[in-house]
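Subject: for your reference before the review

Hello V.,

The reviewers asked for a structural picture of the protein, and I figured it would be easier to keep everything in one thread rather than splitting it across files. Below is the amino acid sequence we used in the manuscript, unchanged from the supplementary table.
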Amino acid sequence: MKPAEIDAFFATLQAANPQPETELEYTTPFELLTAVLLSAQATDVGVNKATRKLFPVANTPQAILDLGIEGLSDYIKTIGLYKSKAKHLTETCRILLEQHGGEVPRTREALEALPGVGRKTANVVLNVAFGEHTMAVDTHIFRVGNRTGLAPGKTPLAVELKLLKRVPAQYMQHAHHWLILHGRYICQARKPRCWECSVAPWCKFKPKTTAPAA
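And here is what came back from the structure prediction:
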């Protein structure tokens, strides 16, 4: 896409949803970190069902540690890979208490040093909790970036770096959420809903899918 097309692309998404938010439920940076850590290979809906029970009981690093791995597992066992996630989250809580005063760190390096926290998770926390202009490339953003021609790349990192260069500064704060939501509900993997797409005029994907018969 050319710069003018990219600007129109994001201006359209902004007009439809001026203040997009993550669909993960949280009230503190630690709850967000926990939810994102649990969301790997799981749906936001599934994570929210688990954290609605977990957070009223334990929503701080110390409270999670007090549950222990087995106790924590009971709350998150409906989530895929819950055993490894319970271990990672417990160890993360220990590090937060020992090295960060129980607070979620605000640097990529410190976040990525936490067990179970990779670049994508760190980017989500930096963007959503702390307002940093980061781009967390999940399967939705990777697909949208490639399919539309917005930011083609063979790896999530390649798409991320290209988006950071191409997305106009005034849209960077919310670009991550606009692209995720667009990929989740419109630019879907198997059958993109092109007939409902507000940014189709600037999309490079051909042929356009037609609406299903009534």
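For the response letter, the relevant points are probably these. The first helix runs from residue 3 to 16. The chain has ten helices and no strands.

Happy to draft the paragraph if you're swamped.

O.
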